[in-house]
TrEMBL record:
InterPro entries: Asn/Gln_tRNA_amidoTrase-B-like, YqeY/Aim41, YqeY/Aim41_N
Molecular functions per Gene Ontology: carbon-nitrogen ligase activity, with glutamine as amido-N-donor
Protein name per UniProt: GatB/YqeY
Source organism, top-level taxon: Bacteria
PANTHER family (alphabetical): ALTERED INHERITANCE OF MITOCHONDRIA PROTEIN 41, MITOCHONDRIAL (PTHR28055:SF1)
Gene3D superfamilies linked: Uncharacterised protein YqeY/AIM41 PF09424, N-terminal domain
Position of the signal peptide: none
Amino acid sequence: MRTTLRRDLTAALKARDRVAVSALRSALAAIDNAEAVPAPDSPTSDAEHVAGAVVGVGAAEAARRELTADDLHAIVAAEVAERVDAATGYARSGRAEAADRLRAEADVLRRYLRPE
């Protein structure tokens, strides 16, 4: 799914489809965030210019979680639900244009959800 999202993001950028670009970038960022693993407590340097700087070989390396297809599906589904909820709030407050944009982004992301 990630490969498809990235490929479609490239196509949306070339087509200058702002709605699709926004939705796809957000979904990819959510996936990247879900892969992040909290940094373990490790020794820090005494560098006064870089707070919390880690020392040693490989200090900049960060482990990533492996996400399953179900995890990816759940993340994209959550992104869709978030947009639908926000669109409802915007519509209630009279911001129809913002609500329409969020609904359009949700429609873009729904294409990546497998039928249930």
